[in-house]
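in:
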């Protein structure tokens, strides 16, 4: 039986190249912060538990829009709120709905949020039901967590 040295060299070069490509891809994903997370078992209003309602008071440090399970995978608006106990991420509602209602929050505003604490990867977030700033209150959800979005 004759072994073709050229074919063996090509195969070993192919395997070395493929291994190198996998290592480079893995390093790039680590550098770019790619995370593989298990999906939450429920989404949307099903995440809202009225028994876990909390009051969060603090100053908005940032407003972010990104795809979120609370918004059922839709782009949702989120606030990072600095409280006496640390930073809390607050889930508001789908961004398109807040834009249509002309509801926006900005860094530096002092707010109070009534909402349900929900476990998320890295800690507990709050799904907002009611947000108050100055004399303005925005009701985002009913007591069961279903979206309302009326303003008074």
């Amino acid at each position: 039986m004759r072994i073709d040295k050229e074919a063996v060299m090509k195969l070993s070069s192919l395997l070395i190249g493929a291994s190198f490509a996998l290592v480079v891809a893995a390093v790039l994903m680590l550098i770019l912060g790619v995370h593989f997370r298990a999906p939450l078992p429920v989404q949307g209003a099903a995440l809202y538990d009225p028994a876990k309602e909390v009051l969060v008071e603090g100053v908005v440090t940032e407003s972010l829009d990104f795809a979120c399970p609370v918004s059922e995978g839709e782009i949702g608006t989120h606030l990072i709120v600095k409280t006496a106990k640390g930073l809390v991420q607050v889930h508001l509602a789908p961004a398109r709905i807040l834009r249509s209602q002309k509801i926006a929050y900005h860094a530096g505003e002092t707010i109070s949020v009534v909402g349900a604490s929900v476990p998320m990867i890295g800690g507990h977030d709050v799904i907002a039901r009611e947000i108050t700033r100055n004399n303005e209150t925005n009701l985002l959800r009913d007591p069961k967590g279903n979206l309302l979005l009326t303003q008074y």
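note: The beta strands are 53-67, 75-83, 86-94, 110-120, 123-133, 136-141, 147-151.
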